[in-house]
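DATA SHEET
Item: assembly model
Revision: 1
Owner: S.N.
Input lines:
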Amino acid sequence: MPDCQPQRRGSTVTEMSTKLIERGARIRRTKWVELSCMLCGEAVATLEGGTLLRPRTASSARISGARVVCGRCGGSLSPTDQGERVHFV
Ligand SMILES: [Zn+2]
């Protein structure tokens, strides 16, 4: 599974982007946090930039009051993985 080594993948991205900055390339970095259900383990959504919530599928997340919960079982979400995505501009 490619998701097993997030830390190694993250450091590779950081090294790459550092080299590109030295050459003058312009990039934009977006921090992301993956949210999964604490009860059923479903990968529910990705939170980008601290404000933009992207559900994994149209029905994977739902709003319960002021909170976002698992669309399958209604369980609470917890962050399981995080990193930084690099966009070239
Ligand atoms: Zn669930």
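QC remark: The longest strand covers residues 77-88.
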